[in-house]
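Now for my pick.
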Amino acid sequence: MSSLKVLSGKPAGVRCIQLADDHRCKIFGQPERPACCSGLQASQEMCGETREQALIWIADLERITAVG
């Protein structure tokens, strides 16, 4: 079993603990990676033309899926 901490969820707007300083997933391709992450497929709509557009899309997704 891996020593990596497995996420059971995080609040919307909170940075993932598995996100490295270079914004890459530390557990990409690992069995510990949550299904919600591995199931998220990038698209032109999601990525936009700039990093800023992509971050807005992700922020909107987190906002509309937030609990409470």
Summary: Confidence is low (pLDDT under 50) at residues 1-7. The helical segments are 35-38, 44-47, 51-65. The radius of gyration is 13 Å.
